[in-house]
Automatic annotation (TrEMBL):
Organism classification: Bacteria, Bacillati, Actinomycetota, Actinomycetes, Kitasatosporales
Name of protein: GMP synthase [glutamine-hydrolyzing]
Signal peptide span: none
Occurrences of domain GMPS ATP-PPase (ranges): 2-200
Subunit structure, as described in the record: Homodimer.
Residues of the full protein shown: 203 to 528 of 528
Record's function text: Catalyzes the synthesis of GMP from XMP.
Species assigned in the record: Streptomyces mordarskii
Keywords: ATP-binding, Glutamine amidotransferase, GMP biosynthesis, Ligase, Nucleotide-binding, Purine biosynthesis
Amino acid sequence: TWTTTNVVEESVAAIREQVGTKRAICGLSGGVDSAVAAALVQKAIGDQLTCVYVDHGLMRKGESEQVEKDFVAATGVQLKVVEAEERFLSALAGVSDPEEKRKIIGREFIRVFEQAQAELVAEAGAAGEDVEFLVQGTLYPDVVESGGGTGTANIKSHHNVGGLPDDIEFQLVEPLRRLFKDEVRMVGQELGLPDEIVHRQPFPGPGLGIRIVGEVNKERLDLLREADAIAREELTAAGLDRDIWQCPVVLLADVRSVGVQGDGRTYGHPIVLRPVSSEDAMTADWSRLPYDVLSRISTRITNEVDQVNRVVLDITSKPPGTIEWE
Ligand code: XMP
């Protein structure tokens, strides 16, 4: 029978059997999935696990600090932080195709993990300290939507499934591969993770890189970060965090429209709000947010974010629209 206790016990046993006395690293993204996967693996193999947080420059405002503090405080896990903004942004330069972006980000993640692995081995010095395993918080829907399920077309290459390079040097440990998000949250609760982690809204591994329609660069990322922070602030202030599944904020960097702001004409970019409700992200409906909340978000974004002169609301369900725009 399916109980979280059984799932935890079985996963812990399976992880111990798979990893043995070797060492593993786990990429933390700040999201629920990687946090729960890491906590499970830590329960199974203790300090044979090192978590690696890759700051790829595609995170939202304040997010890196949060991962570094909250998760370590909650679990006491060993954490290695890798600053990789330049590396990711130069790999993404000039690329606007969504799948290409996803593949590049997936590949760079792995390359950074390999480098972290080499550094850890060098630090440990001794033989038999090999880091052979990479833990990932891959969920069942990630597998299905990346075309890994039976008979399903590839919708998007999730950064941790279809986005992986072929020449990967790790064996993968994916304890959540058969679970849905709500089950992952229950497992996280069972493992004693705090509410701020367990109830976090989903955020994709490729981060804001797939929320800029068009080329990704630092200036656009900074702009999107500001808009996203405002939307999140207002949604939280309105007490809506638990009502919505997630609310991607998207910058249409390749689209411009005419506006009138301050002294005159502007020719700026639109920001899209994509609030959705969902059970498992396989299907979703657009959230009927209160108009006053939407209005506050729109006013603040157009007033406070440079180069944005329009805010639009995405009222498409999934299907036909996916949750993320890319
Ligand atoms: P879509 O856009 O396919 O998204 O409707 C479904 C859910 O998955 C998240 N998502 C990702 N999560 N790596 C992740 O960890 C990815 O590459 C990725 N792509 C989409 C998305 O935020 C939504 O919750």
